[in-house]
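Dear H.,

Thanks for agreeing to be a second pair of eyes. The structure we're designing against is below in token form, covering all 174 positions.
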């Protein structure tokens, strides 16, 4: 008799599990993935600065750019077998007499991003990116700087241009 009760309990629990599974499955099919334009879009989140030293013990302000991105067709980044293509593009500006003056960099501020794996059900790709080691070395040439940046997807679609706003270098010295 005890054996039959245990079997009934298992069947009852199995029935509840099946009902819950069917409810979750039916509700999940009601939610459609959010759609976004095929051109990437970015939004500046933060620029983090640390007063530190590099490997040669030179004083530097180590900057990290943090931003949000979304791409409607999810084609951000490249796989490792393709020719190295850059995805993130930055331009550095100094502020002189309240004017933004582009700083001509010896090495362009362009960054490779690996191809993202994405949810098959949702074509769009969204998330946050960090660009590290945007350093200012001591003595600082400019009191106030700013970065403008954008991304490109594999189809060559360019995002909007976002900005860090003014970064007053001396405010980060300890």
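And this is the sequence the design step returned. I haven't edited it by hand at all.
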């Amino acid at each position: 008799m005890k054996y039959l009760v245990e079997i009934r309990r298992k069947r009852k629990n199995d029935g509840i599990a099946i009902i819950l599974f069917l409810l979750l499955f039916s509700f999940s099919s009601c939610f459609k993935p959010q759609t976004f334009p095929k051109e990437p879009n970015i939004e500046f989140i933060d620029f983090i600065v640390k007063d530190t030293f590099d490997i040669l013990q030179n004083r530097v302000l180590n900057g990290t750019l943090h931003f949000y991105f979304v791409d409607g067709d999810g084609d951000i980044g490249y796989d490792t077998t393709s020719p190295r293509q850059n995805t993130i593009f930055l331009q550095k500006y100094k502020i002189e007499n309240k004017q933004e003056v582009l700083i001509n960099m010896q090495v362009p501020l362009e960054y490779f991003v690996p191809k993202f794996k994405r949810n098959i059900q949702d074509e769009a790709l969204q998330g946050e990116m960090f660009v590290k080691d945007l350093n200012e070395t001591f003595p600082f040439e400019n009191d106030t700087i700013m970065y403008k940046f954008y991304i490109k997807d594999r189809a060559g679609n360019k995002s909007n241009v976002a900005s860090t706003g003014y970064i007053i270098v001396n405010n980060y010295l300890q």
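Two observations from my side: Residues 93 and 99 are 9 Å apart (CA to CA). Confidence is low (pLDDT under 50) at residues 1-15.

Warmly,
E.
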